[in-house]
Amino acid sequence: MGPIFELLSRLNPGTDVEDVFINGHEESVDSFAAFNPTSGLATFAKANGEILVVDYTRIDAIEFN
């Protein structure tokens, strides 16, 4: 598991998020949407309406507003 897993498990949908760092690359997002602890997939909404879905093990850091 780990700290990112624990953080994602506790975040409320709609929480404002500035950026997600995935394998060292910064990805701008607007908010946290969901986390599925069974599959390990974290979902974030972007300001332009796009959805970002990423395996939590690839997330290095999450920057909050």
How does this model look, in words?
With 65 residues, the chain is mainly beta. The protein has one domain (3-63): SH3 type barrels, CATH 2.30.30.100. It is built from one helix and six strands; from the N terminus they run αββββββ. The strands form two sheets. Strands 2-1-6 form a three-stranded antiparallel beta sheet, with no helix packed on it. Strand 3 (31-36) and strand 4 form a beta hairpin. The N and C termini lie far apart (25 Å). The mean pLDDT is 96.
Write the layout of secondary structure elements.
Blueprint: H1 3-10, E1 19-22, E2 25-28, E3 31-36, E4 41-45, E5 51-55, E6 59-63
Antiparallel strand pairs: 1-2, 1-6, 3-4, 4-5
Q: Main beta sheet: strand number and arrangement?
A: 3 strands, antiparallel
Which architecture does the CATH hierarchy give at level 2?
A: Roll
Total strands: 6
What is the count of DSSP helices, taking H or I runs of 4+ residues?
1
Mean pLDDT: 96
- Percent of sequence in beta strands: 35-45%
Q: Uncertain runs with pLDDT below 50, 5 residues or more?
A: none
Label the structural class.
mainly beta
